Amino acid sequence: MVLTIGLVMGIFISIERTQANPGCDTAAGYCDSDIASTTTGGKQLDYLTCDIPSTIYLNATSSVTATAHYTDGIIVVTTNANTTWTSSNYSKISVAPKGQIKGISTGSADIYATYTEGGVSKRCPSTTVTVNIIPPTHTLMSLTCEVPSTIYLNATSSVTATAHYTDGIIVVTTNANTTWTSTEPSVVGVPPQDPAVPKGQIKGNSTGSADIYATYTEGGVSKRCPSTTVTVTVPLVTSLSCSPSSIALAPRGQAQATATYSDGTNSTNVTTQASWSSGDTQCVWVNQTGEYGGRITASAQTSDPNFVQCSTKITAFYNSKSADCTAEVTRADFIAINSPGNNDCIQRSTSSTTISGNSSFGGKDAEAHIRIDGTNLDKTSIEDNGNWSSNAWITKNYSLGPHTIFVAATSDATDTITVNLKDSCVVPPVLTRVDCSPSSISLAPGGLQQATANAVYSNGSRVNVTTNASTTWGSVDPSCASVNNSGQKGLVTAASNIVSCSTNVRATYSGLSGICSVAVSSGSHLDCISGVCLSVAGLGSNTCSPENSVCGSHLECVGLTCQNVSGAGIDRCSAISDCSRLVCVDSSCQRVSGGGSNECSTSASCIHLTRVSVSLNHPSISVGGTSQATAEAIYSDNSRTDITNNSATTWSSSDESIGSMHHSPIIILGKKPGTATITAAFQGVNGSANLSVSCPSGQFSATTICERGKCISTEVYCTSTPACSKNSDCFKKGEKETNP
């Protein structure tokens, strides 16, 4: 008997009940019955191998495993799924569905397994097993491993390690005292090197290859199986389909593109990622790509009273694959909303909003009824084959956010759009830069100058923010010139004890800065320069006379440089590095007073990564739907770089069972209801965005199902019928609960 459970996440699940083997061990609770069957597309069963001991002891049990090998290199341990174990003599050795055999009496029996999937059955070679009374020496002899040679990116695959003993017993050791090792954990992850990988599994973390092997220790003896080279590849699109194959428009329709991948993933909706084209735009046109990709609309000429019928091919293109649908347009009554557009903003107010469009009713007039969220807004008379408009009242009684506007004239003539109600549809200007003026300030020692800061916005407007509480002022070198950050903000004061110097003052507002340069200089006086009395700029006392006479001098820091100054004395510096150094000020490399090592050489060396921004084109999707992720690196100078497909960018999903990652481009497939965090890591900085996955319209999210007359808990999935809450929900009216 086969009981159909349903279509869940593209996998057809059935329960097959078979007659128990007459030799099953009822005392031990082992019997071949109720084996679950899972069938997936995209891969072909190739052959079956089994691990079966050659010897077993009387009344003892031993593990047996069957491993399915597929044409794409994937291997799966099938012991508990669609696997039938057979004993040639059940009075000697019994078999059980849970991967065990048991010695019933002394003697021998041949043991083998049969596995069926997708209509293909494979049987492993039989092994003769002998039942002994006295066990021989039981010592670990060798270790063998089943490891796939190929695995897909972000996918997992089963691995097993089997211990072989001197007495002929074999035991699957995957989850006991077994250590798995990957030579490249960043390419192929294994537990416990990669805590995110479940026991008995390996995972493809990035494209490339890694050697995988296991080590098992028992009784002071360690054995290691030969390593297997595992290659991680990206699933390829193997086919593309367009559905429905024939689309009747009245006046719009929607085509869907479905991709099948080489990893067996079926029914992946790529409608919004595909490119679309119409074979005859005089008949229909189709949205080429994006959120409304595949949306088909009858062309204007089909509203002509003389028009009867037309049809054309609609083609979807995705990853070098294409698929066709046929769009058909037959003369029929229709009405369309042209304004506002779908997803347009409408200002919520007490004034009316004009809703307009075009229509055709085959030579007759009609009356259009306009509704919002099912409530009548207005009705208007429409002449055949003409434009129409209505002044509808959308008041503050409606909540902010998305609402549905529906217009109907006849049973065939309807149209629906979604609008967003807001208190204001005006997009506020964005701050683009901050200007400091005057850009160059010249002062004598002790002089004053008021600087001004203006915020410049994307619409060209300027706002004086000199004294704004959010504006901060600062000087690169206060010993040359300072600037007030309180009181009379922006007032620049030159140092009175400086002969000549230069610096910058900065105004910062909302994360952006404007710079004014400041130069301080005075008159001249006589000073010793390199042993010669010369006239130098700046007010001050003469230290020598007359001009051009010979005088003593020494090296001393003057401003930011090391210079000869008049008068005998000890040299205070020998190079510019003794007087100043280069440091990063925000994202600019500037020289400041004080000796020391340079922190930078150019302004480019001061720019550093500050954060990573991740965005999803669809933050909320249905199961089976997809969302495309992009990432930007944002630097200290506010520059941005797209790092979505950068080789240094690592993408991950916090829950692959909810949102599964696919690369180039970065596509996330919704697999079951829930929320997953999509993270991009770049140069040690992480950015993330949340993806919400829900059931498609008309389906329920279930955590309980009916199985064998019981309401049991299960993994969250989507179903077209409500979940059960108690056992009685699992029986038809009049049936009584039985204990299967």
Question: Can you give a write-up of this model?
Answer:
This protein is an all-beta fold and 740 residues long. 0% of the residues lie in helices and 54% in strands. The strands form 21 sheets. Strands 5, 9, 12, 13 and 14 form a five-stranded mixed sheet that branches. Strand 32 (284-286) and strand 33 (295-298) form a beta hairpin. The protein is flat and about 125 Å long. The two termini are 14 Å apart.
Given the structure, what is the number of helices? Answer: 0
Overall mean confidence score, pLDDT = 79
Instruction: Tell me roughly what share of residues is in helical segments.
Output: under 10%
Unreliable parts: 1-41
Global outline: flat
The rounded Rg comes to: 39 Å
Number of strands: 70
Largest sheet: 5 strands, mixed
**CATH domain topology of the largest domain:** Immunoglobulin-like
How many individual domains? Answer: 6
Supply the helix-strand structural class.
Answer: mainly beta
Measured distance between first and last alpha carbons: 14 Å
Approximately what portion of the residues adopt beta-strand conformation?
Answer: over 45%
CATH uppermost class of the largest domain: Mainly Beta
CATH hierarchy: architecture of the largest domain: Sandwich
